[in-house]
C-alpha cells in the first residue's frame, strides 16, 4: 500500500480525546479524510480501549483517519485531582451540558469504584490525575490483583482541542464554508472489569459527549454535538437469570426514554462486538450507540446519565452471586480462552487500541482494558451440548434475552 500524504494536522492529547474527535461526526455526512500517524508523539495517561471504537464501517471518521496527521500532546500527571477540568469560561455550575456531563461522569466514577471496592473487600483503586496543555485532563483509576477482581479500570476525561478546517467542512458537508480551526470539547467515562472467578462475567461500559464550537472567523456556523456509549456483558458461562437481569436493566433504562431504543441499541451492540475472523461475538451484548444527536439534547443527556447510573444495579448483583462459586482448572482454562477472544477483538478491531499503538501512546494506558491473563489453544472446540458450547453458540447466534 503506498504511503499516505497527510492533508491536515489534528492536535490531540489522549486516547479518550482522540475517540471523541475521530468517532463523533454524523456519519450521514461525507468526509474524505483519513489517518496517518505523526512521527513525533508523547505519552498518554488515559485508556485507549474505547477511544476510537467506531460502530459504522463506513463512518466518515474512519476515512478521516486515513489522511489526517495526528500529534499527541504530552499530558502532565498531577499530585491531586482538581475540582473541575472545565475552563473558567465554561463554568462548573452554569447549567451547560458540558458542566453537567462532567459532573455526571465524576459521580459515576466515584459510585462505580466505591461499589467495586466494597464488593472486592481487599483491592483498592490506584488513581492517576493528569492535565494537558490544550486544556482539560482526566482521572485514571485501576484496581489490580484484588480478592474478586483480577483487573478493573474506571477512567474519565474532560478535554479540549482544535479540529482542522478540512474536517469541519467535511463534517458539515458544506464546501462553501471556509472556517479556520474549529474548537471542540470532549468528555467521557470508560471502564472494563475483569473478575477472577470464571463464573463471574467481564463488564465493559463507556459513555461520552462531544461538541464543536462555532469558529471565530465563521460567525453563525452551527455548534454540533453528539452522544455515544454503551454497556455490555462478556461471561465465560451462561446463567440465564444473570443475562436476563443484565439486559432487563438495560431495557428499563432505554424504555424510560424511547421504547425503540433497547431493540435498536441491542442489535447495534451485537453487530459491533463481532469478531469477524471467528464468526462470533465477544460476549452476550447489551446496548451500544454512537453519533447520537437526532433527539432532544436534554433528553439524550438524561438518557446517557440513566445508562451510566444503571451499571452498578445491572452488574453488582451478578457478581455477588458468582464471585465465590467453586470452580476447577477446566473452568479457568475456558475463561482464559474467552479472554483470548476479548484480546483479539481489542487488538484487531478496536480502533482506540490500534490508534494508540501507532501514535506512540503510553502502553500501560492503551492496554489497561486487557486482562492480566488469557489463553489460546490450537483448534479448540468445546464438546457439543456442554456449558462451554452453550456460551459459544450464544456468541455465534445472538439471542433475545428479555
UniProtKB/TrEMBL annotation:
Recorded superkingdom: Eukaryota
Listed PANTHER family: COPROPORPHYRINOGEN III OXIDASE, MITOCHONDRIAL, OXYGEN-DEPENDENT COPROPORPHYRINOGEN-III OXIDASE, MITOCHONDRIAL
EC number: 1.3.3.3
Pfam families recorded: Coprogen_oxidas
Family stated for the protein in its record: Belongs to the aerobic coproporphyrinogen-III oxidase family.
Class of enzymatic activity (EC top level): oxidoreductase
InterPro entries registered for this protein in UniProt: Coprogen_oxidase_aer (IPR001260), Coprogen_oxidase_aer_sf (IPR036406), Coprogen_oxidase_CS (IPR018375)
Protein name: coproporphyrinogen oxidase
Catalytic activity: coproporphyrinogen III + O2 + 2 H(+) = protoporphyrinogen IX + 2 CO2 + 2 H2O
Assembly and oligomerization: Homodimer.
Pathway annotation from the record: Porphyrin-containing compound metabolism; protoporphyrin-IX biosynthesis; protoporphyrinogen-IX from coproporphyrinogen-III (O2 route): step 1/1
PROSITE patterns: COPROGEN_OXIDASE
UniProt entry keywords in alphabetical sequence: Oxidoreductase, Porphyrin biosynthesis
Protein species of origin: Hibiscus sabdariffa
Amino acid at each position: 500500500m503506498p504511503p499516505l500524504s497527510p492533508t491536515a494536522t489534528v492536535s490531540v492529547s489522549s486516547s479518550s480525546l482522540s475517540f471523541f474527535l475521530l468517532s463523533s461526526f454524523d456519519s450521514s455526512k461525507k468526509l474524505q479524510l483519513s489517518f496517518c500517524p505523526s512521527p513525533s508523539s508523547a505519552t498518554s495517561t488515559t485508556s485507549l480501549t474505547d477511544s476510537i471504537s467506531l460502530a459504522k464501517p463506513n463512518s466518515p471518521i474512519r476515512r478521516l483517519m486515513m489522511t489526517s496527521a495526528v500529534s499527541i500532546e504530552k499530558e502532565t500527571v498531577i499530585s491531586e485531582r482538581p475540582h473541575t477540568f472545565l475552563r473558567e469560561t465554561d463554568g462548573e455550575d452554569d447549567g451547560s451540558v458540558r458542566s453537567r456531563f462532567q459532573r455526571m461522569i465524576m459521580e459515576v466514577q466515584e459510585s462505580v469504584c466505591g461499589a467495586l471496592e466494597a464488593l472486592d473487600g481487599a483491592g483498592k483503586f490506584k488513581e492517576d490525575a493528569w492535565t494537558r496543555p490544550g486544556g482539560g485532563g482526566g482521572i485514571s483509576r485501576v484496581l489490580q490483583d484484588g480478592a474478586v477482581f483480577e483487573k478493573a479500570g474506571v477512567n474519565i476525561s474532560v478535554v479540549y482541542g482544535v479540529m482542522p478546517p478540512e474536517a469541519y467542512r467535511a463534517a458539515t458537508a458544506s464546501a462553501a464554508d471556509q472556517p479556520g480551526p474549529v474548537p471542540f470539547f470532549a468528555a467521557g467515562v470508560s471502564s472494563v472489569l475483569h473478575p477472577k472467578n470464571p463464573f463471574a462475567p467481564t463488564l465493559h461500559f463507556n459513555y461520552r459527549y462531544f461538541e464543536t464550537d462555532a469558529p471565530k472567523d465563521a460567525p453563525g456556523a452551527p455548534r454540533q454535538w453528539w452522544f455515544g456509549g454503551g454497556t455490555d456483558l462478556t461471561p465465560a458461562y451462561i446463567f440465564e437469570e444473570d443475562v436476563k437481569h443484565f439486559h432487563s436493566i438495560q431495557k428499563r433504562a432505554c424504555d424510560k426514554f424511547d421504547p425503540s431504543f433497547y431493540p435498536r441499541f441491542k442489535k447495534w451492540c451485537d453487530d459491533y462486538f463481532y469478531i469477524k475472523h471467528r464468526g462470533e461475538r465477544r460476549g452476550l451484548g447489551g446496548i451500544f450507540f454512537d453519533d447520537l444527536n437526532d433527539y432532544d439534547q436534554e433528553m439524550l443527556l438524561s438518557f446517557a446519565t440513566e445508562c451510566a447510573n444503571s451499571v452498578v444495579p445491572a452488574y453488582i448483583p451478578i457478581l455477588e452471586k458468582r464471585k465465590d462459586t467453586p470452580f476447577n482448572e477446566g473452568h479457568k482454562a475456558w475463561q482464559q480462552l474467552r479472554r483470548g477472544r476479548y484480546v483479539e477483538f481489542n487488538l484487531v478491531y478496536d480502533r482506540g487500541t490500534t490508534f494508540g499503538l501507532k501514535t506512540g501512546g503510553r502502553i500501560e494506558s492503551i492496554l489497561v482494558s486487557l486482562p492480566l491473563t488469557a489463553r489460546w489453544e490450537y483448534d479448540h472446540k468445546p464438546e457439543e451440548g456442554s456449558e462451554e458450547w452453550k456460551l459459544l453458540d450464544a456468541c455465534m447466534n445472538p439471542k433475545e434475552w428479555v
